[in-house]
Amino acid sequence: MILKNQEDGIKREKLGGSGKGHALAFPIAIPDQDGAFTMTTRLELEPGASVGYHLHADNEEVYFIMSGEGLYTEENETQHVKAGDIMLCRMGCSHGIENSGKDTLVVGAAIAKRG
């Protein structure tokens, strides 16, 4: 299945509920509910912008860093991340990410439900 994203991004603020700055989001609709994935998007975070620290109570999320660099926090542990890194936040865990670089941080994200 090929899922095409929108040509124009949607300006979003306070991502994760408490994020800083704004980002462009490029959500991709998943046409069925038969699989594990419920949402996927590409985010473009400006320098200093963030997805606020938030809980994944009943699903999991994976981030793919496509370009740029940032600080990724999961379960209150923060690490530097860059293009090519992949982070997986399991159900019941909390995470967030901040663009700590000088360029746009581009993150692919997908949320999946658990069994």
TrEMBL record:
GO terms for molecular function: metal ion binding. Residues 43-106 form the Cupin type-2 domain. SUPFAM superfamilies: RmlC-like cupins. InterPro entries: Cupin_2, GPI/OXD, RmlC-like_jellyroll, RmlC_Cupin_sf. Keywords: Metal-binding. It comes from the Bacteria. This is Cupin type-2 domain-containing protein. It comes from Cloacibacillus porcorum.
